[in-house]
Amino acid sequence: MSKDISLPLTFKEKAIVFRGGGLGDFILTLPLLYHIPNSYREVILLTKPSYFSLVNKREGLSELLDLDLGLSQISKRIEGADIFTFWDDEEWKNELKNFGANQIFILASRPTEGPHIVKAMFKKTNTPFLPTIFSNAWIGDCWSENSNMWIHPGSGGEYKNMPFSFYKNLAETWLKDKNSNRVTFCFGEADRKIFKTFKEEEFLFSGRIKYVQPSSIEEYKNKLSEGVFEFWGNDSGPGHLAANLGIPTNICFRSTNSSIWRPTGPRVNIHEFQEDSI
For 51-64, what is each residue's pLDDT tens digit? Predict the structure, then answer.
C-alpha cells in the first residue's frame, strides 16, 4: 500500500488509538490508522478482536490489543502518549489525564454534518490530507472478477435498507443477461428478518442463486476475495468491507448521508434514493 504523506524529520514517541463501533466505522478509521505511524515511533491500537484480521501491522502499527479488556492493560503505557479516541466523556478524559496522557484527540463517532468522516478525522488530528486517500483499498485491492454478483440486502438498521424487491430485481436481471452469471446473497446476524423474506421468495433462475451466512468478519473477507463481479448493498459494514477490498461496490443510501458515510475504495458507486421514490 503506497503512502501519500512523506515521513517527518522527527517522530513523536507514542500514540494509542481506542476504536470500537461497528464494522463500517472501523474501516473508515483505517486511513487515519495507517497515517498516524508517519508521526510516531510506536502506535498501539485497541479495538475488537474481530477487526484484527482487517489490519496490516506492516503499515506501522506496533501492537493490537482487545478493547474489551479495558484500560488496565495499557494504563502504565499511557504516560506521555498522544491518545486518539471516539469517546467524548469527561470522566474518561480525566482518567486518561491522570495516567499522564499528553494530548487527547476526541474524534466524532456519529457526525451529522460534513465533511466526510475520514476528512474530519484528519482535520481534527492535524494530519495532512490528500483526496487520493478516498480511492485507496485500505484492506488490500484483491478484486478478482468473475460472473458472480454479490448482494447483501440488510444492514444494522432497517431504516437504511432498500426494499427486498429492489435486490430481487437486480438479481433476476443479472441472471437473465447470461447463462453463466451467478448471484450470492449474504446475510449477517442483524439480517434475520430480511433473511426470512429471502427464504419465502420465489426467484427466476433460482438454480443459479445461493446464499451464505459468514460466521466471522474474516470469513466474510475471505469469501469476497474468492472472486466477485460486483457488490450491491445498503449503507452497512459489509459494503465498506467490499469497497476496501477493491471490489466494484454499489451502495444504496436511503436515509443516511453519503457525503459523510460514503465508503472509501477505488471502485465505489453511490446510489441515492428518496423515501417517496421507493
Answer: 999 998 767 888 99
Q: Is 130 helix (H, G, I), strand (E, B) or coil?
A: coil
Q: Is 150 left (phi over 0), alpha (psi -120 to 50) or beta?
A: beta
CA–CA distance, 225 with 275 (Å, rounded to integer): 33
Contact call for residues 4 and 132 (beta carbons, < 8 A)? yes
- Top CATH class of 12-135 equals alpha beta
C-alpha 52: how far from chain center: 13
Strands (E), the chain: 12-18, 40-47, 63-66, 82-85, 104-106, 148-152, 182-186, 209-212, 230-234, 249-253, 268-272
Could you give the CA distance from residue 24 to residue 17 in angstroms, rounded to a whole number?
17
- Which amino acid type is present at position 84? F
Q: What are phi and psi of 105, to 5 degrees?
A: -100, 115
148-277: CATH topology is Rossmann fold (3.40.50)
Residue 233 cell numbers, joined: 448493498
Smallest CA-to-CA distance from 262 within 230, 239, 231 is with: 239
Please say whether the beta carbons of 213 and 186 come within 8 A.
yes
Q: Give the Cα separation of 245 and 267 in Å (integer).
A: 10
Query: Could you read off the pLDDT of 40-88 as tens digits, one per residue?
Result: 999 999 999 999 999 987 678 889 999 999 999 999 999 999 999 999 9
CA distance 108 to 44: 20
Domain with CATH 3.40.50.2000 in the chain: 12-135, 148-277
